[in-house]
Amino acid sequence: MASAVSFGLYGHDKRAAQRKQQRTPERTLQLLAFAGGWPGALLGQALFRHKHRKAQFQWVFGLCVLANVATIAVMLREFSQ
Questions:
Q1: Distance CA 26, CA 30 (A)
Q2: First to last CA, the chain
Q3: Residue 73: burial class (beta carbons within 10 Å; 0-12, 13-18, 19+)
Q4: Do 9 and 23 form a contact (C-beta atoms < 8 A)?
């Protein structure tokens, strides 16, 4: 669910940027990525060519992805025993 919302917000924010309208805060996009929406965010970045060049944004985004993957790895290890 968070992934679909993230994807949609990237498209919405790209259109808002092009039309010089109110934007989605970067913090919102990053919180959705942290909440598990990073696959949709990654797809949105690629498809809409949005936020993929902002180094600071990508650094935080990468930490969100890393936190999610690490959490899943720990959970899989714990529950498989």
A1: 6
A2: 28
A3: exposed
A4: no
As a whole number, mean pLDDT of residues 8-29 equals 96
pLDDT > 90: percent of the chain: 91
Place of tokens 């924010």: 13
CA-angle at 70, arms to 64 and 72, nearest 5°: 105
Report helix angle 38-48 to 55-79, nearest 10. Answer: 150
Give pTM, 2 decimals.
0.88
C-alpha angle 26-29-35 in degrees, rounded to nearest 5: 140
pLDDT (average), residues 55-69: 96
